[in-house]
């Protein structure tokens, strides 16, 4: 009987030790320097930007800068697709923007908004206005100390949306 109890106690101790080791991450003796290097090489742009919270802060700053720029006409007054910056619309826009950037940079987000052509249809957005918003994005990234390499990677992604967002020349000046 004493032996059986001892056996049970020992079994539990072994199980406990195994649990602890799992929770502790890499077992002792692992070359942590190599691991760090591997992790850095594999880090997505999303992670290097600082994840969802950092992206949300950049989007907040971007929206503030874009809204204050009357020449940009972010709300597209006078076009076929005027947008009302109500608190609800702004909140949806920010959510979709964070999802969009998250998804495009390797984050876990799933973009739930419309595709870029549908979202900007009838807004008569020109190349100059696109560049102006990209300039505000750069200022927002600078305000949040995003390094140059990450900025350039994000600009490359943003650039892929230009042809869907900018209206064809014959309709932009209408
Ligand atoms: C720089 C590249 C741009 C990107 C990546 C981008 C991305 C987006 C995204 C993800 C949405 C949300 C769509 C949805 O909720 O279904 C959106 C909506 C919108 N965008 Fe852009 N956009 C860009 C440029 C612009 C520019 C240059 C303007 C105006 C000057 C603009 C004005 C708007 C407006 C007003 C909305 C709200 C539309 C609505 O909810 O009905 N965007 N954009």
List the helices and strands and how they pair.
Blueprint: H1 2-23, H2 32-42, H3 45-49, H4 51-68, H5 87-104, H6 116-120, H7 127-143, H8 148-159, H9 162-165, H10 169-172
Helix pairs in contact: 4-5, 4-7
What integer is the average pLDDT? 84
What is the global morphology?
A: globular
CATH fold-level label of the largest domain:
Globin-like
CATH class of the largest domain: Mainly Alpha
Query: Rg to the nearest angstrom?
Result: 25 Å
Structural class: mainly alpha
Whole-number tally of structural domains: 2
User: What name goes with the CATH superfamily of the largest domain?
Assistant: Globins
Give the helix tally. 10
Major sheet characteristics: none
Concise summary:
By secondary structure, this protein is mainly α. It is built from ten helices and no strands.
Q: What can you see in these coordinates?
A:
It is a single chain. The chain is globular, with a radius of gyration of 25 Å. The longest helix is centred in the first third of the chain and has 22 residues, at 2-23. Helix 4 (51-68) packs across helix 5. The chain has 10 helices and no strands. Mean pLDDT is 84; it is low at 1-30. By secondary structure, it is an all-alpha fold. It has helices at 2-23, 32-42, 45-49, 51-68, 87-104, 116-120, 127-143, 148-159, 162-165, 169-172. It has 2 domains: 1-42; 48-172, Globin-like. Bound molecules: protoporphyrin IX containing FE.
